[in-house]
Amino acid sequence: MSEIAQEEVQSxxxxxxxxxxxxxxxxxxxxxxxxxxxxWNMSHPEQxxxxxxxxxxxxxxxxxx
Length: 65
Known about the structure:
This protein has 65 residues and is mainly alpha-helical. The protein has one domain (15-65). Helix content is 37%, strand content 0%. The protein has helices at residues 33-38, 44-61. The longest helix has 18 residues, at 44-61. It is globular.
């Protein structure tokens, strides 16, 4: 096999599945319902891009009030 296998992108799900009505994001992984449903159909680059976006989303959403 001449291609180098791409490492699997781990699902961002942490088992805290509760949707925030105000933001539309899961309070555990910060994905939308559509992103959660589509995760296993995404390509490796799409998953990688989403994980990067989730880190930014979390930083913008988290409040220490």
